[in-house]
């Protein structure tokens, strides 16, 4: 199997879209990621996967903290900005939770302290213990499937009013 086939297969798994943020030396840093999962309920642990070439990897190692913002369906441009797909320089105003930068109006945000780090191929897995959570009701998620942003229209149509 070649790399393209593997990427295509992974693209068949629909995911939400997150922005991972951290702060190092009073500078906020963020990156779009869909490699996120919950790990444990007790203690409350989550995992993010960061590529070895991503600057965020060293920043999380330095700060020992990260926040995860689950993007809402109307935040595609936010995802594109933190994925480096928008090349023009833009100011971005963060919200704050537990003294950590998070994405304003995200459908959910959580803050974490790094409690574990594991090398896995060309990525580093950071296990974070959740320290705070904020949720926004009545907001649909931004979804990524087969390399494109999607909406949950089928689900919306099947929910009775």
Which residues form runs of ≥5 with pLDDT under 50?
none
> Could you estimate the helical fraction of the residues in percent?
10-25%
| CATH fold annotation | Pnp Oxidase, Chain A
Number of strands: 12
Quaternary form: single chain
Cross-sheet strand order for the largest sheet: 3-2-6-9-10-5-4
Distance between termini? Answer: 46 Å
Structural class: alpha+beta
The succession of helices and strands, N to C, reads HEEEEEHEHEEEEEEH
Number of domains: 1
Q: Under the CATH scheme, which architecture would be assigned? A: Roll
Mean pLDDT: 91
- Percent in strands: 35-45%
Provide a brief overview of the structure.
The protein has 161 residues and is an alpha+beta fold. It has helices at 3-11, 55-63, 76-82, 153-158; strands at 15-16, 18-24, 27-33, 36-40, 45-51, 65-70, 95-97, 100-102, 108-120, 123-135, 143-145, 148-150.
Structure description:
Helices cover 19% and strands 45% of the residues. By secondary structure, it is an alpha+beta fold. It has one domain (17-147): Pnp Oxidase, Chain A (Roll). Strands 3-2-6-9-10-5-4 form a 7-stranded antiparallel sheet. A hairpin with a 2-residue loop joins strand 11 and strand 12. It is globular. It starts with a helix and ends with a helix. Its EC number is 1.-.-.-.
Mind sketching the topology for me?
Layout: H1 3-11, E1 15-16, E2 18-24, E3 27-33, E4 36-40, E5 45-51, H2 55-63, E6 65-70, H3 76-82, E7 95-97, E8 100-102, E9 108-120, E10 123-135, E11 143-145, E12 148-150, H4 153-158
Antiparallel strand pairs: 1-11, 2-3, 2-6, 4-5, 5-10, 6-9, 7-8, 9-10, 11-12
């Amino acid at each position: 199997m070649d790399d393209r086939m593997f990427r295509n297969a992974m693209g068949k798994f629909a995911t939400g879209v997150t922005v991972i943020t951290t702060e190092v030396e009073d500078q906020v840093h963020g990156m779009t990621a869909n490699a996120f999962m919950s790990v444990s309920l007790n203690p409350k642990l989550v995992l993010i996967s960061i590529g070895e070439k991503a600057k965020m990897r060293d920043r999380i190692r330095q700060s020992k903290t990260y926040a995860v913002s689950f993007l809402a369906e109307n935040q595609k441009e936010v995802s594109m900005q933190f994925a480096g797909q928008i090349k023009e320089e833009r100011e971005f105003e963060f919200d704050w939770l537990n003294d950590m930068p998070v994405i304003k109006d995200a459908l959910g945000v959580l803050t974490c302290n790094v409690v574990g780090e594991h090398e896995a191929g060309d990525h580093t897995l950071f296990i974070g213990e959740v320290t705070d959570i904020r949720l926004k009701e009545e907001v649909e998620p931004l979804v990524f499937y087969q390399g494109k942003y999607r909406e949950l229209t089928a689900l919306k149509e099947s929910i009775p009013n």
